[in-house]
Amino acid sequence: MLEAIVKRSAGLDVHKAMVVATILFEKEDGELEDVTREFKTFPKDLADLANWLDDQKVESTVMETTGVYWKSVHQALEAKELKVHVVNARHIKQIPGRKTDIADSKWLASLARFGLLKGSFIPPQDLRNLRLLTRYRIKLKCNIASEVNRLHKILDDGGTRLGVVISDLQGVSGQAIISGLIKGEHIDKLVSYLKGTTKKKREEVKACLSGNGLSRCHKSLLKKISDHINYLQKECQNLEEEIFTAMQPYKDQWQVLQTIPGIDALTAAVIIAEIGVDMQRFGTSEQFCSWAGMCPGNNESAGKRKSGKTRKGPPVLRSTLCEVANSAVKTRSQFKGYYQGLVIRRGHKRAVFAAGHKVLRVVFYLLTTNKGYTDPKINYEELAVKRNAPRWVKALTKYGYMPEVKAS
Length: 408
Known about the structure:
Elements: E1 8-14, E2 18-26, E3 32-40, H1 43-55, E4 60-64, H2 69-79, E5 84-87, H3 101-113, H4 125-157, H5 162-165, H6 172-183, H7 187-191, H8 202-209, H9 216-246, H10 251-257, H11 265-275, H12 285-291, E6 300-301, E7 304-305, H13 315-328, H14 334-346, H15 348-369, H16 380-398
Parallel strand pairs: 1-4, 4-5
Antiparallel strand pairs: 1-2, 2-3, 6-7
Helix pairs in contact: 1-2, 4-9, 4-11, 6-9, 10-11, 11-13, 12-15, 13-15, 14-15, 14-16
């Protein structure tokens, strides 16, 4: 029989407009008693919830990660200095039958009473604010990419295949030509805007611009989209300045991460905002990578290994690590050899994901030791060849691609 380690526990079932709270406590005769109350999610009501839990001397409070609704509840309880655990809903949905809010909150309180739940990683308030900035900047970057795609479509709709000749319409030459098209300038003047390597494409640019069918509506949309892109880019620059200012308390760790190949100042800020700087809360590097969803899953039964699909991790962190890996594998570092040793048999996507896993392990080590990155210069491609060469030689000999070597 399980032994209760918490005498007074509370479970919160959080919704957008309502919180159902159940307190489970043990009386002197050993009998269990529960009290349930409902609170609205307005600031005053959340303050009343925190005061009620404090007055009832609750030792541990548990709630699920329900969208973004849990955040305001967590802040209200955190301000009251209550012990709060935000848990993954996947960990407590294994038993069916709890179909009401009251039953759900009571079940949470029961699990908390026996210490069967592990709280999720909740960064401190300053890093939560930094997350808002970094994630909003990512959204703005996505909006810019969407608007640039729309710019290509408007030009193609008007019969001007400028995107075929100049791939980067946001470059100096591309922006100048689009601005000239909006003003209705002559083709010779448009061609004069070509800079750098695009000067070699003068004839191609003339061919794609000659007889363009841009109507007044096309030009109007081009101007609106260009203005919107410029506005979004300025907003991104302002956000970057705010992010750099917010990173000053973590300046040492921020600079340490920038020593890793493929990580610049902004990427380092995004990583710190997502994982913090205290690695002890994650345990080992293996547990850390499992939490981030950057390693194969374990699913074994009756001695048979089933699907090793990776678990869901923080999406911003995972995508950022894959971007870092894509850059790191192009540098003269251990990541390049590691990628080349995997890409032949596993493909580009899986090899990049594996390289991202390796980057995350390096991040864990650097933040633990607070030392800069030094490349060990391990040739992973050579190690892969040594490991697989006997099997390759045997297969080539079997199918006649190599003469069989007889022992003397």
